[in-house]
Task: inverse folding
């Protein structure tokens, strides 16, 4: 049986590897003028670590991602293991529906304009 500490370590290692794999095959989205440390976490895609100004969507795991990043994740996850898992908690996602979150996009664009003058 795996102890909770070991599960946490495995989850963190999985998340780190997953994020690295997606970053290696993707282009950066969002506003390149904003420093990643400046982006509020609610407006930052947990995969690409960029401001979600293009097309933020919520996945079945309840987490909001930039559409391009999560779709790339779905494709890579399916190719690697035959199932799609959440990039944040490694749970199998049986529903791949992505629901737009216009409010996040509006807030992210407003944030970008107020902090750098342009998107």
Result:
């Amino acid at each position: 049986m795996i102890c909770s500490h070991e599960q946490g370590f495995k989850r963190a290692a999985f998340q780190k590897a997953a994020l690295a794999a997606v970053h290696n095959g993707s282009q950066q989205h969002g506003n390149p003028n904003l420093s990643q440390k400046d982006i509020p976490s609610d407006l930052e895609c947990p995969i690409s670590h960029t401001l979600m100004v293009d097309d933020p969507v919520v996945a079945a795991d309840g987490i909001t991602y930039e559409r391009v990043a999560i779709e790339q994740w779905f494709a890579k996850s399916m190719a690697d293991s035959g199932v799609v898992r959440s990039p944040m908690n490694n749970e199998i996602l049986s529903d791949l529906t992505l629901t737009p979150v216009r409010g996040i996009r509006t807030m992210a664009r407003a944030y970008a304009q107020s902090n750098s003058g342009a998107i």
Remarks:
- The beta strands are 56-58, 64-66, 99-100.
- The chain is about 45% helix and 5% strand.
